[in-house]
Design brief:
This protein has about 100 residues and is mostly loops. It has one helix and four strands. It has one domain.
Length: about 100
């Protein structure tokens, strides 16, 4: 029942059985899982909040990776040793590197 919905913002589970609690922690798919407590009351600035499935849109607000959804990661590498393929003199302007039209 717990994972049988298209939404997965929060889930709550109450049990006295340590085995059932561990199973719930491992198997429930939701953005925030509350065990043996109320299902509301995420503390702003302390609990990252957001869902999965149709309740989610990316990383959790307030989480460590939240800002990453607003950037495009990119890697730029440069060989600074320049062995054998560098021009003898460095052109003053970038256009000198371009082939003639």
């Amino acid at each position: 029942i717990a994972n049988g919905t298209e939404f997965a913002l929060t889930a709550g589970f109450f049990s006295r059985s340590p085995a059932n609690i561990e199973r719930a922690k491992a198997e429930i798919v939701a953005g925030n899982v509350y065990i043996n407590r109320s299902c509301t009351g995420a503390v702003v600035g302390r609990h990252p909040f957001g869902g999965f499935k149709m309740s989610g849109g990316g990383t959790k607000a307030g989480g460590a990776d939240y800002l990453l959804q607003f950037v495009v990661p990119r890697v730029v590498t440069e060989n600074i040793t320049r062995h054998g393929f560098a021009p003898e003199t460095t052109p003053q302007y970038r256009d000198e590197f371009l082939p003639p039209r």
